[in-house]
Amino acid sequence: MLEVGDLKTYEKIPEKGNTSYGAYVPDLPGCIAVAETLAEVQQLIVESIEFHLEGLIESGLPIPQPTSIAQEVKVLI
Q1: pLDDT band at residue 1, thresholds of 50, 70 and 90?
Q2: Could you tell me the CA-to-CA distances from 34 to 14, 42, 45 in Å, in that order?
Q3: CA end-to-end span of the chain, whole Å?
Q4: Residue 7: which CATH number?
């Protein structure tokens, strides 16, 4: 379990939709953000992570360790 004051790095996954952008955090189920621009969704997901973790702390629940790893893969088609 993490302690308050620990610095951890969570992977965020941004996605482009038809009319907006979304982002989610694989290690924090339910932690999402949606916005009109990529820049806005990048900021909102940080706020969402902070809010999500604060809720876990207030509820006395454990804070998940970040374990996800995101990597780009290039393929020739």
Answers
A1: very low
A2: 9, 9, 8
A3: 43
A4: 3.30.160.250
**Where are the alpha helices (H) located in 1-77, listed in sequence order?**
38-58
**Number of domains observed in the structure of the chain:** 1
What residues make up the domain containing 19? Answer: 1-70
- 3: which 2 tokens? 């302690």
Q: Is residue 77 part of a domain?
A: no
Closest CA to 10 of 27, 32, 24: 27
- Of the candidates 75, 12, 2, which has an alpha carbon nearest to the alpha carbon of residue 41? 12
14-31 mean pLDDT: 97
Residue 4 lies in a domain: yes
